[in-house]
Known about the structure:
The chain is an alpha/beta fold. It has a single domain, classed as Ribonuclease H-like superfamily/Ribonuclease H (Nucleotidyltransferase, domain 5, 2-Layer Sandwich). It is 47% helix and 22% strand. The protein has a 5-stranded mixed beta sheet. The longest helix is centred in the N-terminal third of the chain and has 19 residues, at 41-59.
Amino acid sequence: MLVAGIDSGSISTGFAFVEEKGRCLTAVDFGALRPKTGQPLPDRIEFLFNGVSALFDKYSPDMMALEDIFMAKNVQSAFKLGQVRGAIIAAARTRGIKVMEFTPTLVKSAVTGYGRAEKSQVAFMVTKLLGLEEKPSSEDASDALALAITGILRKETPR
């Protein structure tokens, strides 16, 4: 099973593809998509939609794990994030990819055992769980890996 983890954001969107074979988890690819600084929001959304779509076409994941909507202090940021999430969900669903959403607390708990873990603790555990030689270079990629791992751990079992 191959699960995509997407940590959506209008400035940087982390992506990860984690494969489960038996009891082993392997990071197939991960990184971040970053639109050019200063681009209008519609251009950033188009860039992210096209980038995520290309990754979905390349890897054909079975499902995508996405961070659930959370309370934001800045309403403008929340609206922008919602638009980016919508574009990413559309990219997945038009390809028949199942979408699973998880709260940040659940993701942290699944990966570290503690729902209020710091980002550095999440990065450390992602590195250990996947046997990476070093921590991911960006928090967005680390969070995307954590989402993909959570998707694998929380997937529905066949009846």
